[in-house]
Design a protein that fits this description.
101 residues, five-stranded antiparallel sheet, 8 strands
Length: 101
């Protein structure tokens, strides 16, 4: 479930405003980053069945950080996350900040 705040109305959904490309972690594991209208960046991990890669074994969502609403979420091949923001500062985070792979 995508992270929510206590003050967010329970009957209202959470809008995803940005979604990064899907990146491969291991042979049968992938992840993507999603940012909500509440400025929360979540990591979505997908695990495939090793015997049948057309079937998903599990999906997990974890809160990464709260950052200004981004124009894009860019993950480099070295695991660095760059978030260009329309308002506020653009953020560049390295592996020491977040281990994405």
């Amino acid at each position: 479930m995508i992270s929510r705040r206590k003050l967010h109305p329970p009957g209202k959904g959470v809008l995803i405003t940005q979604l990064a490309d899907v990146h491969k972690q291991k042979k049968s594991a992938f992840f993507a980053l999603a940012q909500s209208e509440l400025e929360d960046v979540d990591e979505i991990s997908i695990r495939l069945n090793p015997d049948d890669e057309t079937k998903v074994d599990g999906i997990s969502v974890s809160l990464l950080d709260t950052l200004p609403v981004a124009n894009a979420l860019n993950v480099s091949k070295f695991g660095m996350l760059f978030i260009p923001a329309e308002f506020g500062e653009s953020n560049e985070m390295s592996e020491s900040d977040y281990l994405l792979f």
